[in-house]
Structures
1.
Amino acid sequence: MLTLELNKKGEAVEIFFDEAGAELLKSYIDAALKNRDHYHLMTPEWGGSELSSECQGLENEVINHLRVACI
């Protein structure tokens, strides 16, 4: 499980994950570094399967798209 959320004040991004979600995010970061590339992680509502759309934080808003990019 990997969920990205914007807190209710709109001032911070919160990342919620279990062990599998942490490994998934790490794998995309490692791939971006190795390939000097970028990757898109999305919720099912946005056509992906990498991010969960189940909100974990009270009154937070789910972020549906994460771009992981090595610059």
2.
Amino acid sequence: MKSIRVFLIVVLLSIICLVNFLAALHGYRSSMAAADRLLEKQITNSAQMIAVLMSNSMEIPEGVFPESVYYQYWHAGMLLKHSANAPDTQLSATEPGFHHENFSGVRWKTLVYPLAPEQSQIIVAHRADTYSNLSEEIILKSILPIIWVLPFLGLLIWLVVYFGLRPLHKLASVLRQKKPDDLAPLENEGYPAELTEVVTSINNLLERLNGAFERERRFSADAAHELRTPLAVLKVGLHNLVEESGPKSDNLQELEKGVDRMGHSIEQILAFHRLSPDRFLTNPEVIDIKEMARQVIIDLYSACALKHQNISIEGPTVNVEGDRFALATLTKNLVDNAIKYTPINGTIIITIATQGTTACIAVEDSGPGVKDADLQKVFDRFYRVGGAILQADVIGSGLGLSIVDHIVQLHKGEINMGVSTQLGGLKISVILPLTQKNLIPID
């Protein structure tokens, strides 16, 4: 069902038309039966009058019957008298009673009226179509006003349905105007009894959702503190252990990598939580993408210098409207991913450009790239190219590109991945709209 309003209007009009049709059909049958009874009465009266005149040996005056009435007087199979307009042949069957006959191209109703002398009878015929046509004309005149009034009746039904559904439209408008982070209960006044229960159920749902989101926010805040603090203590203890034991053993190196990987995973998971749609773009900003990329390189330069990699930024200054934290996380994850998988003495190029009403951020490297079979899987959470064993030396959690894809979707952009024609490795291109106006956040 696409529209309750259309459904009600169509059903009500259909019911009215059906009821009118059944009423007209019943009226037609009743009128035809009444007309037939009236015709039979007139024919009987005519036959009785003729019989009285015949029994008194009186002549039937000319013009006493209209042209639509025929009569014949038969005795012993012989026609003794008949009206001037009647034929010489017998008008009807010889059995007494009413009959329907067709002659002279007209439908007639006849009455065979026996007389006291045996083998004598009077046959009277009246045109049956005159009464049926009159009944049909009367019925048609009574039905036509109903047909003419149907458009006005449809308009009246539309108005009644429209005003009857106004509370439902009001409720829909209130829900449509609610912001993603507005979980306040709805006003429960001014609604009919049928919608009051619906509004109450919606308020109960909003209350449960608000409680669930509040518990989630508290969990996030607590997790950020409870996870980061023990991890920092663990790093300090590990550092002290290394200082006390001298050169790092293989076990201590593996332990240090595990701690770093754990810290990285915690930061990525907390970033994922912070980028939830209900909190996204509450305060959009105009951001210089090139300056943001330059700051990301500064933050990650130690990792880049450790592998003697060459990293550069190309392109003009481009301003994009969006969430600062989200775009910074996107750029950081793209560059960090390139640094991790680019070999020693490799090259990384970040290109900033504009394409009409969109901005393009492309990060390409001279690393091994990604196989075609893995191009779509890399956006899955916790998926790492080559598996955890092959990438044991690379610190990561498999969430970086998944977070990038999530941020791109929140900004109504698109992401493409392929082979870098310039460096031979992986190239990731992110296309974002320059402005977020008229864009609805993803639910």
3.
Amino acid sequence: VAYQPIVNLATGRIHHFEALVRFNRSKLDVAPYEFITFAEDIGLIHEFDLAMCRKVLDVLASEHAPQCGVAVNLSAGSLETPSFASALEVLLEHYAEVRGRLAFEVTETAKINDLTSVNQFIQGLRFAGHTVCLDDFGAGSAAFQYLRALQVDAVKIDGGYVKNAGATSEGARFLKAMAGLLHELDIDTIAEMVEERVHLDVIRECHITYGQGYLFGKPSTDFDHFQSEWI
């Protein structure tokens, strides 16, 4: 598992990390995205997501744990699998002392079919003290449908909008309007793929809450790799 910082743009400090899977290419020569979509296609993504949660919770419970929280991605395939919900609940109870520092990102790699039951699952996580974020907002055609149906704490805006906002004035206005809508809904915003200073300037102008990208740090397995503050 590698970790990438997500920075609070108001304070310049790391707010939390996102946990990202990385493979030893000598043992499994496949990109993480390809592996995850394959796991979704064959119905095993819930086991993968549970394994990621377990690995991150082990880190949070260790002496090498970061001071802040860590977000783990959950696929729609997992959220719609009843056995995953019960297994995750048992796992979280086993890590009762650190579970509050585990957050979740709902990914759009697979379509969510039963939005009502998935929202119930999400509200259970939020009631238990976990922050839930809707990932890759705007990347798929169902983004606003998900926003209406799923009550979440934060939304991660797809990096394509960030890059476009840094390149054109129209893109900047579109991003600002999107961020304004989410602010009106009392939802925190995360801008991903912040790779250049111009991206940072434009997301600050759009009053986005958090930033993530190579400008703040590339994914690393070592938390000491990151400075605690970024201006």
